Amino acid sequence: MLNFIKNFRRDEDGAVTVDWVVLTAAIVGLGIAVLTSVGNGTTALSSKISSNLSAHSLTTY
User: Fold this and answer.
1) How far is 34 from 41, CA to CA, in rounded Å?
2) CA 23, CA 28: separation in Å to the nearest integer?
3) What's the CA gap between 31 and 40, in Å, rounded?
4) Could you report how far apart the first and last alpha carbons of the chain are, in Å?
5) 23: closest CA among 34, 33, 31?
């Protein structure tokens, strides 16, 4: 039992796993923030384009 505790204290695999989880969570959070920002900008731009196009008329001959 004592060897198990000594090995557990020296093992760093858990710390590396925690680092990767935190890094992955940060990347996902950044991705969501970028998608939200780009999505809002795209919605506003498409609304402006739609209102501009609807203000024009098309004449056919």
Assistant:
1) 11
2) 9
3) 14
4) 93
5) 31
